[in-house]
Design brief:
The chain is of the alpha+beta class. The strands form four sheets. Strands 3-7-8-12-11-10-9 form a seven-stranded mixed beta sheet. The protein has a four-stranded antiparallel beta sheet with strand order 14-15-13-16, covered by helices on one side. It has a three-stranded antiparallel beta sheet with strand order 4-6-5. Helix 3 crosses helix 9 and helix 11 crosses helix 12. The N terminus is likely disordered. It binds adenosine-5'-[phenylalaninyl-phosphate] and magnesium ion. Magnesium ion (MG) binds next to strand 11. This is phenylalanine--tRNA ligase. Keywords: Aminoacyl-tRNA synthetase, ATP-binding, Ligase, Mitochondrion, Nucleotide-binding, Protein biosynthesis, Transit peptide. Is responsible for the charging of tRNA(Phe) with phenylalanine in mitochondrial translation.
Length: 387
């Protein structure tokens, strides 16, 4: 047994989410078609968005409030749909092409070749439309293999919003239906931003999603950078058609709740949302939007560089998974700082790993131990050659 297994948390073996029972043995097994590690599995069922005292839950309720007030309760709300969904729900139903990168094992957690941990709440659009809902919000935990830094985490929360317009509503506007829906969507989300933040510096950026056209992203200025907080657009006609709506247009959005909560409460690092330290949790209370997070002291980061020759199957997401698996929330960032190919065609990468606890000072010994394990496991699992 290697040292790093000591840091692994015990994992519940039976969970119930939204009435669906999940048995761990059914989900995590030694199977090459399953890439869900225990650290990720242990987040299933935690549902931070359903805790009224947690920043994610407080934010969810504030957004509910905006929709209740502005649309007189017309939006149906879902926050307990099971995060384990079919490939069909997550990708096919929202027109993600067969060869799209998001379908790869490098980007998505697969339980088996037909079943994934949803990578977005858009996975529920089609079923809810088919059930006849025309105005709805879906909040849930979503899962992605991704890079590591202060605004990316492999488990985060999204809120999906969908509004279907009747043909009469569009006609009354005198505009073409798509422009009308796009205008309404932007007005709705700008109103939401004002409701949450008051005045804030934001901008619209044109974007692309397989399920909307046109598509946009909203960015907010935060910590001296533009931070992407949501994606949205006018729903592709094909999705509506398949759910039996031939004469309608609709808009849809997907909010990144951690990102919005970081701006709202001035939370500097996404890992804090998972902290059980009372110095974090006690700063927030139900219904309180105006609170600014007070860091309970900033501990120094420790940087460790690691250089190795890569092979053709190397990916940064795989490295991040190794680091996360060993260091857990003690890793703050994994960043490529050097990349070159020699005359023989061998490529070398140098990654800088930042270790920092949000809660305490780390000892040199502890960090060296972690880094030693990262080197060992990177070598054995990723087949890279350390330099
Ligand atoms: C989507 O997931 C689309 N489903 C959004 C959408 C819905 C578009 C409906 C159109 C219509 P994207 O991959 O950009 O899009 O993610 C949406 C938001 O999730 C991002 O803007 C960001 O705020 C947040 N997000 C993405 N990756 C991470 C991550 N690793 N950690 C934290 N937040 C993330
Ligand atoms: Mg995006």
């Amino acid at each position: 047994k290697t040292q790093h297994q000591k840091w692994k948390q015990p994992v519940a073996s039976v969970l119930e989410i939204g009435g669906v029972k999940i048995v761990k043995d059914d989900v995590v097994r030694d199977d090459p078609t399953n890439n869900v590690p225990d650290t990720i599995f242990s987040k299933l069922g935690v549902q931070l968005h359903r805790r009224a005292q947690h920043p994610i839950g407080i934010l969810k309720n504030a957004i509910y409030n905006y929709f209740d007030v502005n649309y007189s309760g017309k939006f149906d709300k879902f926050d307990d749909l099971c995060p384990i969904v079919s490939v069909k729900q997550n990708f096919d139903d929202v027109l993600v092409p067969e060869d799209h990168v998001s379908r790869s094992y490098n980007d998505t957690y697969y339980i088996d070749p037909e079943t994934v941990l949803r990578c977005h709440t858009s996975a529920h659009q089609a079923e809810l439309l088919t059930e006849g809902h025309t105005h709805f919000l879906v909040t849930g935990d979503v899962y992605r293999r991704d890079s590591i830094d202060s605004t990316h985490y492999p488990v985060f929360h999204q809120m999906e919003g969908v509004r279907v317009f009747s043909p009469a509503e569009c006609e009354a506007s005198g505009m073409d239906a798509t422009s009308y829906a796009a205008g309404d969507l932007k007005k709705c989300l700008e109103g939401l931003a004002r409701h949450l933040f008051g005045a804030v510096e934001m901008r619209w950026v044109d974007s692309y999603f397989p399920f909307t056209n046109p598509s946009f992203e909203l960015e907010i200025y935060f910590q001296e950078k533009w931070l992407e907080v949501l994606g949205c657009g006018v729903m592709e006609q094909e999705i509506l058609k398949r759910t039996g709506k031939i004469n309608n247009v609709a808009w849809a959005f997907g909010l990144g709740l951690e990102r919005l909560a970081m701006v709202l409460f001035e939370i500097p690092d996404i890992r804090l949302f998972w902290s059980t330290d009372e110095r974090f949790t006690s700063q927030f209370s139900q219904g309180q939007l105006g609170v600014k997070f007070k860091p309970f002291s900033k501990f120094p980061p420790c940087y460790k560089d690691m250089s190795f020759w890569i092979n053709d199957s190397f990916t940064e997401n795989n490295l991040c998974e190794v680091v996360r698996g060993i260091a857990g929330d003690l890793v703050e960032e994994v960043r490529l700082i050097d990349n070159f190919t020699n005359k023989k065609g061998m490529t070398s990468h140098c990654y800088r790993i930042a270790y920092r606890s949000m809660e305490r000072s780390l000892t040199d010994e502890e960090i060296n131990q972690l880094q030693g394990n990262v080197r060992e496991v990177a070598q054995s699992k990723l087949n890279v050659v350390l330099r």
